[in-house]
Amino acid sequence: MAKKQADTEFNKGDFVVYPAHGVGQVDGIETQSIAGIEVTLYTIVFEKDRMRLKLPLNKIKDSGLRKLTSKDRLKDALTTLTGKSKVRRTMWSRRAQEYETKINSGDPVSIAEVLRDLRREDQSEQSYSERQIYQEALQRLAREVAAVEKIDEKKAAEKLEKVLTKAA
């Protein structure tokens, strides 16, 4: 049985975070008939990735879809950036996998941990894969900072880089 639109958590135009893709915007709520069953779906647009996601309402909890983070949680993420990096002495492949998991969690503090741990004054010392993961984390966190603070993504990335540079 399809839920009515009044029961939905998000409205058209709301910015949301889908853990595996970052910040998107709810484009609409629609009901479709799939295999003879009425299913209510959110349509979420990720402009940066030129992607459109249709997510059934009954899969929202499982997917981890959430509203933008609070300003307090964002402050925690920025504080995390200023901390001392915690690079463990494990193989790079295992650390890279852990970093990807943190980025895909969608949690701003976890993403900030990745940035903090991969921060280097001399970026040329980083391997290609370290730079790729760093850039992915920076983009993901910058998109959320931009949406929360209502600034453009470039300014948000510059703000994060400035915090990281000060902490180094």
Describe this structure in words.
This protein is of the alpha+beta class. It has 2 domains: 5-67, Thrombin, subunit H, CATH 2.40.10; 71-167, Methane Monooxygenase Hydroxylase, Chain G, domain 1. It has helices at residues 60-63, 71-81, 92-105, 108-118, 128-149, 153-167, and strands at residues 15-18, 22-34, 37-46, 51-56, 66-67. The radius of gyration is 18 Å and the shape is elongated. 24% of the residues are buried.
Summarize the structure.
This protein has 168 residues and is an alpha+beta fold.
Quick tags:
single chain; 168 residues; alpha+beta; Thrombin, subunit H; Methane Monooxygenase Hydroxylase, Chain G, domain 1; 2 domains; 5-stranded antiparallel β-sheet; 5 strands; elongated; disordered N terminus
Classify the secondary structure makeup into a structural class. Answer: alpha+beta
**Which whole number gives the mean pLDDT?**
87
Distance from first to last alpha carbon: 55 Å
Q: How many structural units, i.e. domains? A: 2
Strand order of the largest sheet: 4-3-2-1-5
Residue share in helix: 40-55%
In total, how many beta strands? 5
Helix/strand order: EEEEHEHHHHH
CATH class of the largest domain: Mainly Alpha
Largest sheet: 5 strands, antiparallel
Rg is 18 Å
**CATH architecture classification name of the largest domain:** Up-down Bundle
CATH superfamily of the largest domain: CarD-like, C-terminal domain
Shape: elongated
Low confidence ranges: 1-7
